[in-house]
């Protein structure tokens, strides 16, 4: 198919690659410009000696055939060739205050029936509350989310209107649960054990309960598995498919500015001052950098200004990740667990941690040599700028603070899993400065914006900017909560918009 229109895309993360792939399928000539030397953006892994440390994927919506996200992934890649690990337990949480028959561990099972039976066994008197929780997930499973309706939300065809009407019961479920947090729901339990467990579902944070019940509805059907091989391997599959369709990725090609003329986006100025022109521009990069640097803050309104000031939405956390390569298998331990600390762990950025989170990759043998494994400890922080500013102003102090924090974290883990300290062969510490340097994400945010308590409220973020034509944004900044589901869904939606504007009927093959 001959290419009538050209599109320049900023960023070779999942959404940038997916947008490019959809547009290539529809006859556009696309190029992606990526500041780093490899694809993936936040969906990445990195090598340290014999070990691969992962910075993103723990699960992927769309790993079973009846899932709407499976249908989207299938449009892009041969997802059937990817091997997934489906965990029986999402997370094991050690409680501090309560126990059942001496056991202080709460297991969040991914099978809804098993979870219901397990919780009822702990507290039969809470059966009504438990069933409210589990039945909400069973109800979610009945609906196709996201709805695969071409040109949503235009609803111009009868098919579209009918599909939307079918979703109304689902929207009612969301309405019922939209303001219920893990803490507010915890108050409904008579069991002190279940009450504390739900308070700790998110490491002590207060978040909408839908943040966990929504993905659990997919976990139950083996629809949110972990792709073995990790994040970068997954990103490469998308990159290879994009290139096979005629797309081009320009690596080590950072963007200085979006070219505009008469309020129409016309191309990009690269960091080497080269101009590359196109009919459309799509940014799959950091929202703040795009709006206020690449476009100099020209195309804004009151809503965008409030977003900048974080009055509409708050930034998603960044993270300090301490990764270890161990000469141990640790097969006897749960793959993902949290436990309380007797004393607070204080980060150099001022964050205090009372709960410790550990991820053991004992289920992905590709990340470490035989008989060995990778362990990561993640510490979420709202103070990412501490690390970013310190790295810029005093690199030696930055390195020392990373080292000291890693030592503290390793000591805590060694007290929990005795003997690991002597088996460490590789240590790596990624900070918000790492995420910022690699992606430009504001303050090192790992998923754009935090979702509101109303989990499914309309996003104040628009994929277009006021007064600017032929320019779109895609990726995890467009819908609060972010993640790979948002990355591919927004890529699909933006590609539809560009096709519609170009008079091309959107297709997916």
Q: Which CATH top level class of the largest domain fits?
A: Alpha Beta
Helix content: 25-40%
What is the percentage of strand-forming residues? 15-25%
Overall structural class, as computed from helix and strand content, comes to: alpha/beta
How many DSSP helices? 16
Number of domains: 3
State the low-pLDDT regions, or none: 149-160
pLDDT average, as an integer? 92
Instruction: Please identify which CATH superfamily of the largest domain we are dealing with.
Output: FAD/NAD(P)-binding domain
Query: Main sheet, how many strands, which sense, barrel?
Result: 7 strands, mixed
Verbal overview:
About 2% of the residues have low confidence. The protein is 34% helix and 21% strand. Helix 1 packs parallel to helix 16, helix 3 runs antiparallel to helix 4 and helix 4 packs across helix 9. Strand 3 and strand 4 form a beta hairpin. With 509 residues, it is an alpha/beta fold. It contains 16 helices and 20 strands. The strands form five sheets. A seven-stranded mixed beta sheet has the order 8-7-16-17-18-15-19, with helices on both faces. It has a five-stranded parallel beta sheet with strand order 10-2-1-14-20, covered by helices on one side. Strands 5-9-6 form a three-stranded antiparallel beta sheet. The protein has three domains: 173 residues, FAD/NAD(P)-binding domain, CATH 3.50.50; 135 residues, no CATH class; 127 residues, no CATH class.
